[in-house]
2-oxoacid:acceptor oxidoreductase subunit alpha (Hallella faecis), 630 residues
Amino acid sequence: MMAELEVKELEAVVVRFSGDSGDGMQLAGNIFSTVSATVGNGISTFPDYPADIRAPHGSLTGVSGYQVHIGEGQVYTPGDKCDVLVAMNAAALKTQYRHAKPLATIIIDADSFGPADLKKAQFASDDYLGEMKINPDHVVACPITTMVKDCLQDSGMDNKAILKCRNMFALGLVCWLFNREISLVEQFLHEKFAKKPAVAEANISVVKAGYNYGANTHASVPATYRIESKHKVPGRYMDITGNKATAYGLMAAAERAGLKLYLGSYPITPATDILHELAKHKSMGVITMQAEDELAACSSAIGAAFAGALAATSTSGPGICLKSEAMNLAVIDELPLVIIDVQRGGPSTGLPTKSEQTDLLQVLYGRNGESPMPVIAATSPTDCFDAAFMACKIALEHLTPVVLLTDAFIANGSAAWKLPKLDELPEIHPHRVLENQKFKYSPYRRDPESLVRYWAVPGQEGYTHILGGLEKDGETGTISTDPENHHLMDNLRFGKVARIHVPDLEVEGDADDADLLIVGFGSTYGHLHAAMAELRRRGHKVALAQLKYINPLPANTAEVLTRYKKVVVAEQNLGQLAALLRIRINGFTPYQLDRVKGQPLRTHRIATIFENIILDKIHANGDTFTSRIV
C-alpha cells in the first residue's frame, strides 16, 4: 500500500447520498454541500425523496437520495449522473445505481447487505454486484454499522440513537475523499444541535471516524480529489435552498418598502419551509399565521393587504385550486398580494415530493371571469430571492396580486448564494393615496399612465372606502351592474397588468446566428443552459432564451422568438408555455420538448434531441400541435 495517495484536482464532481428515509441522507448531503459552498465552490443540489411518511425499512419504495454537484466555478445543474454513490443498504444500491456513471465509486455499508436485506431489495442471490453488473473494484465495502457502534460504545446512547449516526460516517468518508475540512463539519453540527450538545459530539466523533477510516485504509481508491475555487467573487456566501431564499426575498422587500410582512399559509409539500422560515423572524416584525385551510390562509393575507401590510401566501398546485376564489377577490379589489406556488407533480395529490411545471396555465387562467395577474417564474434556488423581491415590488407598486412560480426542484435544491447588501437592492415605492385626494377619495380612480389605483388603508382620515367582490363603479366606487362600466373595468384591470414594465428577454449563446433557439421558463434554466453549452462544444450554433416574466411577457418576446429558423420550447409539462406563446405570437410554431416525469431534465439526453433537430433528423410533418412534439 502506498504511503501517500495522489491528490487529483477536478473541475467538478457529482456525489449522491442514498439510503432509507430515516438514514439521514438529506442531512449528510446538506452538510457536504454547505461545506463546499463555504470554501467557495459552486454547488447545485437535488433532494430526491419518497412521499411515504415512513416506508418499511430496507424497502425499495423507501429510498431517499440527495445529489450534489460541486464545481470550481458556477454550477448549473445537480448533474445527470454521479461520480460517487453512497448506498447505505441493498435497496439504495438497487434503486440508485442507475444514477451512477459507469466508472463511479460506490460506497456501501457492508453490514446492510445481509440475506434479509437482499431479499427486501428483491435480489435473486447473494451476488448482488454480479446481478447488477457492478465492477467490485469500484466498490468501497465498509462495515459502517459495526464501526459506528464501536465508535459510540461508551457514549451512553441506546442502539437506535447510535444507528442514526451512520450517515455521519459516510459523510466523513466522502469528506476525506474530497479533502474537505472536518472543522467546517464540526461547526455545522454544533449549530445544528446547539440544544443537544451530546448529540452534536456523538455525530462529530462518527464523522471523524469515517474520515480516519478513509485516511488509514485509503478506502480502496487510487486517489483523493480536490476541487479548487478559481473564480471566487469576494463576499459573504451561504448554501441556501430555494424556499429559504424566497422567504428572505419577502423579508428584504418588506424592509425596502417600510412595511410589515404578513404570511398566511397552510402546510403543504413542498412549500411549508417558507412558513417555517418566516416564523423564525418575529424580531424583524414578520407575522405568520397557519390557517385552517388554503382559502382561509389566502383570505387572511388579503385582509392584511387591505390593512396596509406586505401580504403573501404560500402553497403548491393543489392549494392554488383551493385559493382561486380568494385570489379572484384580490384581483377585483386590486390589492397587493404575493401568491407563492411551489409546483409539484399532479394532478390531484399526484406526486407530492416530485417536481413539475404544470401549474402555468392554472395560475394564468384558472379563475372565473377576466382575472389578469402578473406571473414570475424563478430560475434557480438563488434566483428565488430576486424573484420574490420583484414579485413584492410589482405587487406594491401596481396594486395587484402577483404569482411567484417555483417548484420542488429549486425549492428544495440549494446553491451557493452571495448575500446582497440591503441598500443596494431596488427601491420599492407602494402606490399610496395622494394628499390632494383627501375627503374626495374614490378607490378605483387611477394614475392615467399606469392605470394603477391609489392605496388607502383603513383608519386614514379622509380616505374612507369599501372594497369587495362585487363589481364597482370606476368613478364612485359604489356597486355597479352597468354593462359599459363592467367592460371598462375589465379592460382597466387587464391594461394595468399589460403596462407593467419587465426586463427585455435576453438571449445567451450564439444570439446573432444560432441554428436553434432553445426556449424555457423558470427552473429548467440550468439544464437548458448546460445543454446549450454541450451543443456549442459539439460545434453547433445554439442560443437560449429563458423566460422569467410570464405575464406580462417581455416587450421584445415576439421579436426574439421569430428571429430564428428553428425554435424548441422545452418544459416540464405537456406544452403549456408553447401553447401560451402560440396564443401571444402570431404564426409562432415551435418544436416542443415536453417531459412530465417528476424528475429534472437530463442534460445529455435533451442535448442529443436538440442536436437531432439541428441536423434535420427530427422532422415536423405540419404546423399542428402534435406534429412538432419531439
About this structure: The chain has 21 helices and 22 strands. The CA atoms of residues 423 and 471 lie 40 Å apart. The first helix runs from residue 25 to 38. The radius of gyration is 27 Å.
